[in-house]
Write a structure and sequence with these properties.
Elements lengths: L3 E4 L2 E4 L2 E2 H8 L3 E5 H13 L6 E6 L6 H9 L3 E4 L2 H9 L7 E3 L6 H10 L3 E4 L2 H14 L3 E8 L21 E2 H11 L5 E7 L10 H19 L6 E3 L16 H11 L6 E4 L3 H4 L3 E13 L2 E6 L8 H5 L5 E3 L7 E7 L8 E9 L6 E4 L20 E6 L2 E6 L4 H5 L8
Parallel strand pairs: 4-20, 5-6, 5-13, 6-7, 7-8, 8-9, 9-10, 9-11, 11-12, 12-13, 15-17
Antiparallel strand pairs: 1-2, 2-3, 4-14, 14-15, 14-19, 16-19, 17-18, 20-21
Length: about 425
């Protein structure tokens, strides 16, 4: 069953009519299908069942505690990139030994917290970070488990803002430098080499870049083994794309087959860091039409959600399908779907052909489960939206809409 589908012209999330939810919680709000979240995780994880592996969900894609708790209950590990994501993981009950800490700018406080809690692995992204990790481990009397994130100089064929595997990007260490760092690190009593890793980007819709990545990692992994370094983890990162518009990304099964074929004969434990591929198509943003505006031949559909709620179209020029909550037989129109924020970049679609809508009617911005709420802000002093989870006929508000008191809670009213 599709998580979002029409029944007699009304959009449903599983067995709940989306309009019914809107009447209860107001708009805008994010809406997620729990059955879809669970199914997509299981399908991805099961695709790698023939090889020892740990599927570490990328918390940055959607970090709501209820969603994290769901994935933890399904056997996931977590991939985090900040102290806040680390704390969310602990709050959701995650075993520290199933947490990978990635990111190019880890602070001493973040390293100390992760060392204290005993996480599975630090993905180190520079020689300077490795020195800092060694020093913090020495100070705390710990041994830090780590892998080096190798930068393979692979073009993933995605938007430049979400490509991470080129030499000109801030991420990772060139492969020729990585082997030298490993050789030096093996002499330290405060460092433990646990693996080698890579992450080349996000929303990748072909297998070629992944295969090139794996071939390089395989070569480095086997070189480390040959030198007597007992590495176990081969961390492939994430990046598998989803359908937003007309993309044709490989299915998890195809992705897994390609990876496993490229790793034949290598004894390792795979670490996988999927995010978008699990949550992206499992969520939508629901918004209400405030008014329609004509400016000459131009038509604007103004809605109550803004770029502060869903930044992707403005940030990346990303395409999201936009569907009415109620289908009608009205003629279509071509319009810009825009928000109320005082920026020309505040839009969800430009010159989009869509069903004619009237003030008060509602729209669903599809495929908003990944990099949606996590990128939301309070720009223009707007309150961030609610988040709702549906399972079957049941719904639950998993984050209430912000209130004005939340907006000003940490501010001082008086100047110096």
């Amino acid at each position: 069953m599709l998580p979002f589908c029409y029944r007699k012209g009304k959009l449903f999330c599983e067995d709940v009519q989306v309009e019914d939810i809107a009447r209860k919680v107001g708009t805008p709000f994010y809406l997620y299908s729990q059955s879809s979240l669970a199914s997509r995780f299981r399908v991805f994880d099961d695709a790698f069942r023939t090889l020892p592996h740990l599927t570490c969900y990328a918390v940055k894609a959607n970090s709501n505690l209820a969603i994290l708790s769901l994935f933890r209950s399904l056997g996931a590990g977590f991939d985090v990139v900040s102290e806040g994501e680390l704390m969310r993981s602990f709050r959701a009950g995650m075993d520290p030994e199933k947490i990978i800490f990635s990111g190019v700018g880890k602070t001493e406080d973040e390293l100390d917290l992760a060392l204290h809690r005993g996480i599975l692995q630090f993905n180190v992204e520079s020689a300077a970070e490795l020195l800092m990790l060694e020093a913090r481990a020495h100070t705390s009397g710990k041994v830090a488990p780590f892998a080096i994130r190798v930068n393979p100089d692979v073009d993933p064929g995605t938007h430049p803002y979400i490509a991470t595997g080129g030499r000109h990007h801030k991420f990772g260490i060139p492969s020729e430098q990585a082997l030298d760092l490993y050789s030096r690190a093996r002499l330290s009593p405060h460092l433990r080499i646990t693996g080698v890793g890579c992450h080349i980007g996000s929303q990748i819709t072909s297998l070629g870049p992944f295969i090139r990545e794996v071939r390089l990692l395989r070569k480095i992994f086997l070189a480390l083994r040959a030198s007597g370094i007992g590495v176990l983890n081969l961390d492939l990162g994430g990046g598998l794309g989803i359908v937003y518009h007309e993309e044709t990304p490989p299915e998890p099964r195809e992705y897994a087959e390609a990876i496993l074929n490229a790793l034949k004969g290598v004894e390792c434990r795979l670490i996988l860091e999927p995010g978008r591929v699990i949550v992206g198509n499992s969520g939508i943003l629901v918004t209400r039409v405030t008014l329609t505006k004509r400016s000459g031949a131009k038509v604007f559909v103004v809605v109550d959600a803004g770029m502060n709620d869903l930044l992707r179209p403005t940030l990346y020029g990303s395409y999201h399908r936009i569907q009415p909550l109620t289908q009608t037989r009205r003629r279509s129109l071509r319009a810009d779907v825009v928000g109320p924020i005082c920026e020309s970049g505040d839009f969800f679609a430009l010159a989009r052909s869509m069903q004619r809508v009237e003030a008060g009617e509602m729209l669903a911005i599809m495929s908003a489960g990944a990099y949606g709420f996590v990128l939301a802000s309070n720009y223009n002093s707007r309150l961030r939206p609610a988040e709702v989870l549906v399972r079957g006929r049941r719904m639950k508000v998993i984050r209430r809409r912000e209130r004005f008191q939340d907006l000003i809670r940490d501010e001082s009213l008086t100047p110096l």
